[in-house]
Amino acid sequence: MKIAVLQSDGRLFPQCKESGQVAVLEVDPVNQSVRRTKLLSPPPQAVGALADLLGRENVEVLLASGIPQRDRELIEQKGIEVIVGVPPHRVEPVVANYLAGTLQTGDNPCEQPAGGSA
C-alpha cells in the first residue's frame, strides 16, 4: 500500500498556496510498518498536477493537513482516498495512527468559509 503525505521538515503541511514536499510511503498494513519512503518535489501549481503525480506513483491514500477542494476532487477522481484536516504532526506517528485506525482529523484550513472571497 502506498500513502502520500504533504509535508515540510518532516511534519504534515497544508498545501493551500505553497508546497513543501510529497512523501510517498510504501507501507505494510498488516505489520503497520513503513518499508520505504520516497521524497518528491512538489508539482507546479497547475490544475491536476498533484493528482497526476500521485496517480503515477500508484498512491492509494493521501494524508494532508489542508488541500484546496478542487485538488481534492481531482485526486479522488484518480481513485485515491483523501484524508484532510490531519494535524501538522511528524509524519511517522501520523502514518502509524492511520494504519492503526486511530487518526483524528479536524478542519481543512485551505477551504474558504461560506461567503468568503477567493
Name the descriptors.
23% helix, six-stranded mixed sheet, alpha/beta, 3 helices, Nucleotidyltransferase, domain 5
What proportion of the residues form beta strands (DSSP E)? Answer: 25-35%
CATH fold call: Nucleotidyltransferase, domain 5
Radius of gyration: 13 Å
Mean pLDDT: 86
Helix content percent band: 10-25%
Count all strands and give the number: 6
Q: Class by helix and strand content? A: alpha/beta
Q: Biggest sheet, open or closed, and with what strands and sense? A: 6 strands, mixed
Question: Distance N terminus to C terminus?
Answer: 36 Å
Overall body shape: globular
SSE string: EEEEHEHEH
The low-confidence runs, each spanning 5 or more residues with pLDDT under 50, are 114-118
**Tally of distinct domains:** 1
Helices, by number, come to 3
CATH superfamily: Dinitrogenase iron-molybdenum cofactor biosynthesis domain
* CATH class type: Alpha Beta
Brief overview, please?
The chain has one domain: 2-Layer Sandwich (Nucleotidyltransferase, domain 5). Helices cover 23% and strands 28% of the residues.
Structure write-up:
The protein is α/β, with parallel strands linked by helices. Helix content is 23%, strand content 28%. The chain has helices at residues 49-56, 69-77, 91-100, and strands spanning 2-8, 11-12, 21-28, 33-40, 61-64, 81-84. Strands 1, 2, 3, 4, 5 and 6 form a six-stranded mixed beta sheet that branches. The longest helix is centred in the last third of the chain and has 10 residues, at 91-100. The relative contact order is 0.22. Residues 114-118 have low confidence and may be disordered.
